Amino acid sequence: MKIFFSTMFTCLLFTGSLLTAHAQEQPVTKESFACINLKHRGLEKVRQQFDAGRYDAAATALLSYYRNRTGMLRPNFDLDELKRSTGKKLSPDIREAADNALLHKFKPHKAYPYYDFGKDINWQLRPVPDQLFNTFLHRTAFWEPLGKAYWATGDERYAREWITEVRDWIKKNQPGAYPDDKDYAWKAFVVSFRLNYWSSYFNMFLKSPNFTPAFLMEFLDVYAQQADYVLANYTPDGNHRLFEAEHMMYAGYSFPEMQHCSTWSASGIKVLNEEIGKQILPDGVDFELSTSYHITVLTTFLEGLKIAQQAGAENDFPESYRNLVKQMIDAVGKYSFPDYTFPLYGNSFLTDKAQMIKSYRDWSTVFPLDQTIRWFATDGASGSAPDYHSSALHNAGFYTFRSSNPLDMKSTVMQIKAGPPAGFHSHPDNGNFVLWVKGRNFTPDAGSFVYANVGNIVNPKRDWYRSTKAHQTLTLDDQNIENKAEEKKWTPSGDIEVLTYTNPSYEHLSHQRSFLFVDHAYLIIVDKAYGSATGKLGIHFNLQEDSKPVVDQAHNRINTTYADGNNLLIQNLNADQIGLKATDSFVSYQYQKEKPRPAFVFEKPKANANAQTFITILYPYTGKTAPNISLKENAGNDYEKGVINITITVNGRKRDIQTTLLQ
């Protein structure tokens, strides 16, 4: 008897929930099929019912078609994955996210906690002054845990809630529902992400009894509306346009039953073919000069190739497209360190070796014969090492000094940025460098912390992380510079490797910076500031947060104190008066997370039109005691003319250095 009543109670709850869900449904009409190509192969039963005016039956037949179709291209979560996931234990964070979603508590961006959007969901809630939070909200990625929980448990609460929330979102977020919707819910970039996510959710919940024929027609109608919207509102330029193109390819190939599917996918292919020549420099680097965004853009261009291959449309991308994608992969190896991390130029965030090897393995599937990609994909276990140590990406202005091959963990590597003007994700930081020695990044780039201001509300954190003074280069009165570097010399071989560039940093002040990589062991930086501008000159140095430096102001020296003996000395070697002071500095490896770190600036005044010079040595050493270093200028040495004839003495051992800074 108890079993009977328990079963009966469960059935009543389930029936009641279905009735509640069905009560929200709109009637299926002839117009419900406007977005469907009823002549598409496999829809014969649907068309038969449609032609007979039996629209409910036609929708039922269409749902049956979708539940049984095979061989379709889907971005994620196909029915094979459903079989693998059924009954699989959920991770605690996925369970938490799914259960919170049942309560309308969402976490659109990982940098923030869960927020309660209310019993009657307020899709316009803006709890933090960060535009990304609300654009991520309207991407709707936070629904994915509902799907994973549904797959793992079969609990219809998750499916029912997703359907309810989708309908609520549609009802409250039609185009024009609020004044700035084109900055959020109806920003084409955001809409394109919804297309991608919703095609996955479609697969995740398709077999739920709550996924009714009426809901199917609502879903397909809004999906087509959004794809048509992106088609008519592509972002004019930049990486957003690339994401939109990729997602339109997925939309077209995921729903070939749609009237406009071919137009959607063709638009994506066309945009990617056009933009790769506009956004990728001849050396293979993304024109925004952000190391993280370069990989993101690379992934998007590569994904276009993979989608086309799966759809049998690979010939829609010419060989020149493939070659440039290959160059983009090669560029990553050149600007990376042996531990697979890279400088956080522009709006970038820290990656790790496991993630990068995973990326290389993915890239290797598209270029299986490339031995260098295989070498990086296997951590050097197979394939072939590239035929360079030091290297340059001249168009981007990314330069690398290396003492050994790109995966030698005992090597010394300096990455330098001295490039052209760039896009939104770039910072005013020409001359910036990162020094990595034997597995330690001594001078990490600051990162970005946050991307953008919100409307007219200025975010001082964004401004600081973008500022020139937050980077390792020269400033005048701590003001931001202009990026427009011109390479003057690059000799990446021999005992003294040289890079020199000039940059018109300020209206009446240019900066010439030269790097000398001596004996593959240490670096000398020669800075020359010239022009009629006057003010306070400074060259900035930022150390890793755990470096615990010792500061010797009397001798303009700073040295780290790592217990393992892998340390760095930074010393100014000017003969004239130079000031050394500590400055406030931070580093951000993840979005909206930061750590304070030691930072210093060598300063001197520029009182007239005469050029001013800084000479600085960066000397890695082993042990707890920093070496004693001095510089002697020899006959003919002339920093202003770019003629170097000096003697560096390290603990009594002399090294004569003779070279020129200009070609």
Describe this structure in words.
Residues 387-599 form the Heparinase II/III-like C-terminal domain. This protein has 663 residues and is of the alpha+beta class. It has a domain at 418-660: Beta-galactosidase, Chain A, domain 5, CATH 2.70.98.70. An eight-stranded antiparallel beta sheet has the order 9-10-11-12-21-16-15-14, with no helix packed on it. Strands 3-4-5-6-7 form a five-stranded antiparallel beta sheet, with no helix packed on it. A four-stranded antiparallel beta sheet has the order 8-13-20-17, with no helix packed on it. Strand 6 and strand 7 form a beta hairpin. Helix 1 (2-23) runs parallel beside helix 8, helix 5 packs across helix 7 (144-153) and helix 13 packs antiparallel against helix 14 (319-334). The chain starts with a helix and ends with a strand. Mean pLDDT is 94; it is low at 1-21.
